Amino acid sequence: MRGGTLTQRVVWALTGAVTVFVAALALLAYLAFDQMEDGLVDQILTTEAERVAQHVAAEAQFLPPHGARELGGSMRAWLQDGQVPDDMPAQLQGLSPGLHLLEPGAETWHVMVTDTPRGRLYVLYNATDHEARVRDFGLIVLGMGALCIIAAYALSRRVAGVAVGPLLDLTGRLSNWAPGSPDMAVTRDDEAGQLIEAFNRVQNQVDRSIAREREFAANLSHEARTPLAAIRSDSEIMLLDATLPADTRLRLTRIVTNVDHIVASLESARSMASDQPRPAEDVDLAACMDDAWRGLEVEADAAGLSFYNRIPGGTVYLLDRYALLTVLRNLVRNSIEHAAPATLTAALIADGTLELRDTGKGIAPEELPFVFQRYYSGRLGDTPTALPDDGGFPRGLGLAIAKRVCDMQRWHLQVESERGGESHGARFQLRLL
Fold it and tell me: What is the model's pTM?
């Protein structure tokens, strides 16, 4: 496994960082302690050498001419007045005045050499015990550093588990949702590779779902066109009979209109499924608005919704007529369901914006951010099984479909609402340019 798993890399990265920090800190502590010990020894040696030099100048017999004087358990002094003392170590002979550090064998000597009126004074401090303390301190620091590294390794494993855990959980959820093998090979053999593989399987499943949706929309449009064309043709032939009663003629006209609306809905659905807008054509906005109202006029009358089309006739835009019909019909249906009894007015305002304004009760401010969400009808539904009281189709789809069509056509749909006052009601503005 090249480079190890992501968990292992996190563990070793954190442990390595702590190891470098602890090692640097331990080395600095050891060097600082060693320097402090050497400085302490040199300070003691310098002070004692000055004291001995004063005694030598004041007392002729303070130091024997041919031997050493013990100044303490670790310190000795010699005076060389032309003849080298018998027991003075050979390593001290020839040293110049000043501080010196000697390491004969396993011992460590600090030597202070100074000149006096009676000769050259040598003061030796055996610092072997100090060096032993420095080594003991180094071992203690090394042991503590090892404990810190072991603790860092254990903590790194815990941190790696917490950091990589959500990634593994997401991978497991995606794997349960989309089992099987991905179409694309994954070269990484770690947690990231497993997640990429799970995403590839999800992508495959999504692609298959989209393909099935597009196939269904195309098949539905194809299969429904023939019977719809027959219904429309028969209705138009029947309308040619001048002896038909007015009520029958009205019903046949509604059949023709609704067939046209079904065809428009199928075309719009197929366009949305394929995510490919239909070719644009010249569309009279006022006539298109009348067509959208005509298919829902019976429902609007039953609900008490009156309609006024204030769009100037002859206002022609180059756009997808089926898409515009889908949006307008869903906006009218929304007014029937939520505003009636009221009045709905369509008008063309500045900047090529089509406005549908109703005089209903309006939309609560807290609901405005959610009105274009799917299955939202005064509340957020969790599934598409939320049905109205009459057991019909799920509510809360109309505005979502309208918004989806607008997004695909690069139109801008927004809603404003007021409750109370003279201008109460909802205003849907559709900017087409």
Answer: 0.48
